[in-house]
Input
Amino acid sequence: MEKRFDPIKDKTAEIIECIMSAPEIPDSDDLRFNIRLAVEEATENIVQYAYAEGEGYVIVKIEKDANNKLTITLRDEGVPFNPLAKDDPDITLSAEERQIGGLGIFLCKQLMDKVTYVFEKGCNVLIMEKEC
Output
C-alpha cells in the first residue's frame, strides 16, 4: 500500500488510521499496539516539524514480505532532519532532569525491530521494520 497525504496539516489521526487499517498490519493486539505507538510518534514528528507552515506532504508506504517482515516507510520533503542522529535520552533520569525531545524516536527504536533514516533526492525517508 502506498498513499500520499497532501497537505498534512491537521491530518495526524487520518494518517495513523490509514496505516493501521492497511491489510499488511498484523492482527496481534501486542504487535498492533507497538506498531501504532511507533507510527504515532514518527507521524507526529513529521506533521509538527517537517514543514514550518504545515503545508507539505508525506508519502506512506507499507509492505510485508514473504517472511512476514513489515516495512513502513514515511517520506517527506520537509526540513532535512535525521532523528536517529540524536543520542537516546537517559531514561534513568526523572522527567524534570531529562532534556526535552528525543523520547518519541527512542520509543520507535524500542518498539520496532529496525529503524533507519536516509536523506535521498531531497527527501527525508524514515523506514521502520517489524517482524510479524
